[in-house]
Amino acid sequence: MVFLSGSVAEESVPLSCGNQMQVWENITGSLKELAECGETPPPTWSAQRTAAALIYMRNLTDALHKHQLKECQGAEPRECHEAEVPDNGGLVCATAAKKRYCKPMCNDGYDFGFLRRSRPFEECSEQTGYKWQSQYVGGKKLALCHKSYVQVSGQKSAYFARNQDCIITQSNKQLRTRIIEDFKAELRNQGVEEEPQYACLVCG
């Protein structure tokens, strides 16, 4: 996959965007190669061309972020609004006994704004009026992850491991499965007997 070939003037010409499927199929390998093998752009790149690349990458990042959020969409009960995913962290969610549970998690180097040791996850169900139980006004915001040198506000399982933030965890099948299975175990330990469904992990 070739990025930004030709002059800046040529780059401004709209693309036909015909075979997008092939482009998306190739993008992971191309980005991996650039990230690992091309530490800096070629010396012939101008500041304008570099800025254009940054714009494309910013737009692509936004599109990819919105796409990964779809994993938790459409879960039961449908009356519950999707909970907001905290920046610098993520949400792991599951449904059991017609109740939706979501557990906020913070990346390494971040901590919650409120103490969460006694409430590792939040619930949305008929019993809650299909509103999220939350310490924040508005209902959809479950937690905020603030920059912090120490992590003391939540239980140990409420934090992604060092060098394994939410996005890295999401990209690794084994790490992702472990986070979800740990959450299911926490639900069982809290008396949720029904096997959880619609389990997902999304990142802020």
Tell me the number of helical segments per DSSP (H or I, 4 or more residues long). 5
**What would the average pLDDT be, to the nearest integer?**
88
Strand share of the residues?
15-25%
How large is the radius of gyration? 20 Å
Please provide the count of β strands.
6
Report the major sheet.
Answer: 4 strands, antiparallel
Order of helices and strands: HHHEEEEEHHE
Secondary structure topology:
Layout: H1 8-11, H2 20-37, H3 47-69, E1 89-96, E2 99-106, E3 110-112, E4 122-124, E5 145-147, H4 166-171, H5 173-189, E6 197-203
Antiparallel strand pairs: 1-2, 1-6, 2-4, 3-5
Report on the structure:
This protein is α+β, with helices and mostly antiparallel strands. 33% of the residues lie in helices and 16% in strands. It is built from five helices and six strands. It has helices spanning 8-11, 20-37, 47-69, 166-171, 173-189; strands at 89-96, 99-106, 110-112, 122-124, 145-147, 197-203. It has a four-stranded antiparallel sheet with strand order 4-2-1-6. A two-stranded antiparallel sheet has the order 3-5. β1 and β2 (99-106) form a beta hairpin. The longest helix has 23 residues, at 47-69. The protein is globular.
